[in-house]
Task: inverse folding
């Protein structure tokens, strides 16, 4: 009854996967969750993952995402009969009592991560008794802040079961990129300033062309490199660029010559190469319906992050980088053109890139601790 895409490596090995169940909240850092799942899968390909709760889609084949939460006892029994998870990692709070009660009856080892005081409920009359019943099944809890840790202890968890860890956040995971291609493109660019726009939506192209026109009035050698979100739109976007600029196209074998003002980067395995080459990255989709890629991608490779007002599913990641001084938002075309011109100064972009690296590197200790707890829980469950 388990979909094949949840089995991953275990299915390939010809035996059933052991299932780790994650229940996420809307505030859960999707990049952090993906990073955690990837590390677990790398360590043990006999693990499968099911994710409940609402949130953005995860990479295909990594986990089965059920955009629902079984809320009744009958739904909980059906879910647990189908998946039979060994371990549950519950994120934030907002507990669903029938689901947790059924999990306890089946001996599912429970871990609470990213516990937030606001999601644990106010400490008022009747609160402690209700929360003690829910908390009793958690073997360990990682609290976002002191308020959450205090509430968890008042609700019945022992001192040694609660850790004040801070949030689960993604650490730096760099996209691969061919060093041979990077070196060849760097030689062709000959020190030209570059800004990269990955994941571009068709609705944004006109605004991005206008921003590049504005920026190149002073930075005459500036090159815009654009990678469409949808490969089917690459030809249309290339024609639009050619209507305003001398444009080269990677899929046609073109190199960025000195005369080239815009480059269509429609070789999608080169995203990591362009993050390494471009001191500035503007996240595609943020002038459209929402960011189409994670801002941690450029941040992990030393490219300063710019974005429009529509950050979409990646909003927590953009907020984290902005608070660290590692990302900068713009509201419109004029604003983007001005900011690009300002950040072309090497010290400006380098300062943002350094802040980005420090910010995303800080998430590693919490991820490592949660991995340890999951490993211990799997051992306890006999896997």
Result:
């Amino acid at each position: 009854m388990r979909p094949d895409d949840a089995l991953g490596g275990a299915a390939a090995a010809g035996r059933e996967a052991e299932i780790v169940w994650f229940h996420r909240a809307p505030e859960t850092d999707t990049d952090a969750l993906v990073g955690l799942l990837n590390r677990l899968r790398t360590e043990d390909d006999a693990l499968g993952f099911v994710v409940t709760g609402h949130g953005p889609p995860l990479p295909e084949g990594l986990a089965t995402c059920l955009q629902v939460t079984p809320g009744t006892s009958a739904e909980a029994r059906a879910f647990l009969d189908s998946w039979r998870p060994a371990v549950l990692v519950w994120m934030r709070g907002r507990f669903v009592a029938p689901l947790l009660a059924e999990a306890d009856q089946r001996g599912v080892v429970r871990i609470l991560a990213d516990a937030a005081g606001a999601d644990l409920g106010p400490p008022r009359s009747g609160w402690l008794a209700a929360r003690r019943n829910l908390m009793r099944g958690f073997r360990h809890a990682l609290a976002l802040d002191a308020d959450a840790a205090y509430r968890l202890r008042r609700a019945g968890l022992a001192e040694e079961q609660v850790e004040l860890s801070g949030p689960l956040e993604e650490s730096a995971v760099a996209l691969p990129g061919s060093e041979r291609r990077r070196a060849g493109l760097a030689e062709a660019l000959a020190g030209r300033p570059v800004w990269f726009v990955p994941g571009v939506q068709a609705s944004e192209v006109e605004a991005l062309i206008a921003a590049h026109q504005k920026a190149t009035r002073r930075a005459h050698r500036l090159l815009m490199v654009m990678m469409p979100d949808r490969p089917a739109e690459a030809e249309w976007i290339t024609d639009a660029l050619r209507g305003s600029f001398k444009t080269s196209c990677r899929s046609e074998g073109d190199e960025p010559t000195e005369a080239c003002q815009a480059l269509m980067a429609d070789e999608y395995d080169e995203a990591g190469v362009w993050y390494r080459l471009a001191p500035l990255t503007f996240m595609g989709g943020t002038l459209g319906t929402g960011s189409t890629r994670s801002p941690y991608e450029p941040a992990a490779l030393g490219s300063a992050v710019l974005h429009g007002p529509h950050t979409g599913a990646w909003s927590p990641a953009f907020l984290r980088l902005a608070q660290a001084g590692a990302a900068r938002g713009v509201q419109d075309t004029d604003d983007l053109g001005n900011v690009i011109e300002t950040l072309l100064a090497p010290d400006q972009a380098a300062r943002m890139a350094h802040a980005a690296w420090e910010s995303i590197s800080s998430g590693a200790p919490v991820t490592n601790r949660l991995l340890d707890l999951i490993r211990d829980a799997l051992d306890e469950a006999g896997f």
Q: What stands out?
A: The longest helix spans residues 364-380. The radius of gyration is 23 Å. The mean pLDDT is 86. The chain is about 40% helix and 15% strand.
